[in-house]
Design goal:
It contains 10 helices and no strands. The protein has helices at 3-40, 43-66, 77-84, 87-94, 96-111, 113-132, 135-141, 145-166, 169-174, 178-197.
Length: 198
């Protein structure tokens, strides 16, 4: 038997071996996903929703400062961000980096109040709140059902104010910027509900 004939005969075997290996990899990936879900439970979903809610709150805050001027009390997004900020980012801002950002924000507010007053006020307040909050609020209430209830209250208030300002629930989804605003505010409500239940 020649070498080329042997290689042609091994192609079927090689194809079967590759197919078997790929099936075993798929089974291992499924088992990994199932075991990860079983070990972390619904906490993994809670952390993803926490990130989504934080991004939505920051998005709504930026949107309010740029082109979504409403009569709603969007300053409530600052305590929402404080209570829903993921622990990694919260610890970063709570440390030396946050202190430096806070001191720069205070200096800018003191020496250049006309230039930075309107658009810089709420982000600076968020950083200051994170840096100077007492440990009772920063670590106990933030990682507790108290912080979740505060987030839920803020989210429900902003949702009902947005629906009222839009002229009804249907209009909140049909206006030009209504869909993204409504979905962002709904994310603010979904995260605390999910975290309280699970």
């Amino acid at each position: 038997m020649t070498f080329t004939a042997m290689r042609r005969g091994d192609q079927g075997t090689l194809h079967n071996m590759l197919g078997t290996d790929l099936n075993e990899l798929a089974t291992a990936a499924k088992n990994l996903a199932n075991h990860t879900f079983m070990l972390t439970g619904l906490g993994f979903g809670t952390s993803i929703l926490e990130w989504i809610a934080t991004v939505a709150a920051i998005y709504l805050l930026v949107l309010d400062r740029t082109n979504w001027k409403t009569n709603m009390l969007t300053a409530l997004l600052i305590p929402y961000i404080f209570f829903s900020l993921p622990s990694v980012i919260f610890s970063l801002f709570r440390g030396e980096i946050g202190k430096w950002i806070a001191i720069v924000a205070v200096v800018l507010q003191l020496f250049f109040p006309k230039h930075f007053r309107e658009w810089f006020e709420l982000p600076a307040a968020a950083v200051l709140l994170i840096v100077v909050a007492p440990n009772l609020i920063a670590y106990t209430f933030r990682d507790n059902w108290v912080g979740l209830l505060i987030c839920l209250g803020i989210g429900c208030y902003l949702l009902q104010e947005h629906i009222r300002a839009s002229g009804g629930f249907r209009n909140a989804f049909t206006k030009a910027n209504g869909i993204s605003n409504t979905l962002g505010i709904i994310a603010l409500v979904v995260f605390p509900i999910w975290a309280i239940i699970f």
